[in-house]
Design a protein that fits this description.
Shape: globular
CATH architecture of one domain: Beta Barrel
CATH topology of one domain: Lipocalin
Strand content: over 45%
Structural class: mainly beta
Number of helices: 0
Helix content: under 10%
Strand order of the largest sheet: 1-2-3-4
Distance between the termini: 12 Å
Largest sheet: 4 strands, antiparallel
CATH class of one domain: Mainly Beta
Amino acid sequence: MGSSGSALRVCAGHRGGINWLSLSPDGQRLLTGSEDGTARLWSTVDGQCCALLQGHESYVTFCQLEDETAFTCSADCTIRSWDVRTGQCLQVYRGHTSIVNRILVANDQLFSSSYDRTARVWTVDKGQMSQEFRGHRNCVLTLAYSAPKDLPRDPCLEAAMGGGLLVTGSSDDTAKVWQVASGCCHQTLRGHTGAVLCLVLDVSSHTAFTGSTDATVRAWDILSGEQLRVFREHQGSVICLELTDRLLYSGSADRTVKCWLADTGERVCTFSAHRHSVSALKYHAGTCTRPGALHSIS
């Protein structure tokens, strides 16, 4: 989506709806996960499909593109990694007992969340689970990670936070902050009156932003658990979030994307070109002639 709200490129080929997209760091490739059980890799230059990733036995819920490896998760309870050059499946991660909602590759680890009410962390290369996080009373829908280097240097907390912090959002209306090394819950973030569908972290300020079916976005201090501010203006569930350059973008079931000042909660502008709920969005920095582009799907 450009500044005028017009589409820049259309990628067509999936036989079902697109549930998620992941843009490569250079902006040249786009990975999409679909209801048709496949993921596809696209060129953003011409919109052509570069690779078809087949193997899941049910729909793909989420995908992440990392250099030469793609990661997908599915309603078939598994996670898969793929070689994007050949389309070959490299690893299948098995252990969840229900739909895998989200995955995150960070710090040489793979994190996942599931309808089985757990989040898990896996070794990327061997596909083995190394930690399980239990405590949510309902489905774990979304997650984000803060690495040890981004956390304050505190000798009293060094052992507990040596593996970093994982933040999860659930349909039990809460978000939780977990110590990755121990699997213990560090904080429970309470305030939403609906399911927490999405979240992003500002690691520099140790702030989590959560979006919910209660139509609000909320900001939290993940160390203390304090609610910092509430972003109100959406008329429907907040489905996706993106944080860049101190601006927070939120996509909603009200068919809009809103841009906010992350530090104050002030709304900057609204994008309203979609005809259906906005299910995913991604900001990509452009050149000096075009400051940036916001990509979204509905």
